[in-house]
């Protein structure tokens, strides 16, 4: 059910449930390690976990306690410390941050006030409060930081501290690629209540006919690229990609470790054989593009990905998710840190799109050959720093969410972006190709 279709009391309950779920996850991620580990910087790319925790509370205080609630500040004195624009991640450990006990007390105090604010909010009127938007934004913000904290856990050295059951088994897919027909489709949304500014508004986009893979590229396929000397041949790489390949001495996905003639991987502290039929993860955009070029294919554009994920040829309309309009369930997609790895190809037949494309949502974020820009009619909301300041920067788009993305923080319209060299995120890719004239006859 979409948020706008709920009654006010049902919406209030939904908001409360989503806030609780996000907090339970933050607690799992921060209680899993000791105080030493919480304040340590596990990688220059990441904040100490204790920064993420207090930052989650600070954003919640700014938007829900002060703005929506109109209440007195809880800790105005720490706003600057937890402003992501003021302090790059590498500098954060040197700041006079709240210690773990203070951070836990702070987020608890803020949350108590927020439940009080939620009781009193009409969840309509001001745009910020309509359909609980500000609450939804804060839920998504916490879940996004939880995924970031999960990536910090992957970078952390030491014995495993996170545990989850293995994902469901895979099964072979009937075809390797499908044709997405030529024509317009509705991209983005104007009706999804908690969609962020960069997903809006809905607008028609024409897409030429193209073929897209029914599954993300697997570890086995990627290993064949490595074995064929893909990392040693500049022909497959863009100029900037090759320069980075050389400078960073890339030889395999991040967290792969040589084991004689083969490879193992380090996954949250477990060193294990690489499952051949699982989507490859921890590759940067440049690696994804090099693989696609080597394979005689290309990466999809953002519009192509979204059309493959949402377009229903039977009705001509765009769905909320590949499987339909229902919120993601465990049968649809590998989301929400239920498992600590991508699932093998074919593990979610109930999550396929009408055109038969699998695992578009969940498992791995998918790198796309598109830059970040606003849609026609874009309007910054509720603040320019959410999206607009990143338009036109050195970013490539990512879609679909990963096993570490919560269902509350992803939709088929949801847009993510990152630098094309990033490998610590849970990103993989799938390939596409142009349709040839004889294939359309
Ligand atoms: Fe943030």
Topology:
Layout: H1 8-31, H2 35-39, H3 49-68, H4 100-120, H5 133-155, E1 177-180, E2 183-187, E3 203-207, E4 210-213, H6 219-227, H7 239-247, E5 256-259, E6 262-267, E7 270-273, H8 285-294, H9 302-310, E8 365-367, E9 396-399, E10 416-418, E11 427-428, E12 432-434, H10 437-440
Parallel strand pairs: 8-11
Antiparallel strand pairs: 1-4, 2-3, 4-12, 5-6, 6-7, 8-9, 9-10
Helix pairs in contact: 1-5, 3-4, 3-5, 7-8
The structure holds fe (ii) ion (FE2).
Overall pLDDT score: 96
**Structural domains: how many:** 2
Count of DSSP E strands? 12
Give the biggest sheet. 4 strands, mixed
Please state the overall shape, judged from the principal axes of the Cα atoms.
globular
Q: What series of H and E elements makes up the topology? A: HHHHHEEEEHHEEEHHEEEEEH
- Could you name the ranges where pLDDT drops below 50 across 5 or more consecutive residues? none
What do we call the CATH homologous superfamily of the largest domain?
Answer: paralog of FGE (formylglycine-generating enzyme)
CATH architecture of the largest domain: Alpha-Beta Complex
Helical segment tally? 10
The distinct bound ligands, ions and cofactors come out as: fe (ii) ion
Q: What portion of residues belong to β-strands?
A: 5-15%
Structural class: alpha+beta
């Amino acid at each position: 059910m979409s948020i706008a279709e709920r009654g006010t009391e049902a919406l209030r309950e939904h908001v409360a449930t989503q806030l609780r779920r996000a907090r339970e996850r933050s607690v799992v991620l921060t209680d899993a390690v000791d105080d030493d580990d919480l304040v340590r910087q596990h990688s220059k790319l990441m904040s100490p976990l204790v920064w993420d925790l207090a930052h989650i509370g600070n954003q919640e205080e700014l938007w829900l306690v002060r703005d929506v609630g109109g209440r007195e500040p809880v800790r105005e004195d720490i706003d600057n410390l937890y402003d992501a624009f003021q302090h790059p991640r590498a500098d954060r450990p040197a700041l006079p941050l709240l210690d773990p006990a203070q951070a836990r007390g702070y987020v608890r105090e803020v949350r108590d006030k927020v439940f009080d604010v939620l009781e009193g909010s009409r969840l309509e009127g001001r745009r910020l409060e309509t359909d609980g938007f500000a609450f939804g934004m804060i839920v998504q913000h916490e879940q996004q930081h939880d995924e970031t904290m999960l990536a910090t856990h992957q970078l952390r050295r030491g014995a495993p501290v996170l545990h989850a059951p293995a994902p469901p088994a895979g099964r072979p897919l009937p075809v390797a690629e499908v044709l997405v027909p030529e024509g317009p489709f509705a991209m983005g949304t104007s009706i999804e209540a908690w969609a962020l500014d960069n997903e809006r508004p809905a607008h028609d986009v024409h897409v030429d006919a193209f073929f897209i893979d029914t599954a993300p590229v697997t570890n086995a396929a990627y290993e064949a690229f490595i074995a064929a000397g893909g990392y040693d041949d500049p022909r497959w790489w863009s100029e900037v990609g090759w320069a980075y390949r050389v400078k960073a001495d890339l030889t395999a996905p991040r967290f792969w470790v040589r084991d004689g003639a083969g490879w193992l991987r380090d996954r949250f502290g477990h060193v294990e054989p690489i499952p051949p039929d699982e989507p490859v993860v921890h590759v940067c955009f440049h690696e994804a593009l090099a693989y696609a070029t080597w394979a005689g294919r290309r990466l999809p554009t953002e519009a192509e990905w979204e059309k493959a994920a949402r377009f229903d040829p039977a009705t001509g309309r765009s769905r909320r998710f590949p499987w339909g309009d229902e919120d993601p369930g465990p049968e649809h997609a590998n989301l929400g840190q239920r498992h600590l790895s991508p699932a093998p190809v074919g593990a979610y037949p109930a999550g396929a799109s009408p055109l038969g494309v699998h695992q578009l949502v969940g498992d791995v974020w998918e790198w796309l050959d598109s830059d970040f820009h606003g849609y026609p009619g874009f309007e910054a909301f509720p603040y320019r720093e959410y999206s607009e300041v990143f338009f036109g920067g050195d970013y490539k788009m990512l879609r679909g969410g990963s096993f570490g993305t919560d269902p509350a923080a992803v939709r088929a319209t949801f847009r993510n972006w990152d630098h094309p060299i990033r490998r610590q995120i849970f990103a993989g890719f799938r390939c596409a190709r142009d349709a040839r004239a004889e294939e359309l006859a």
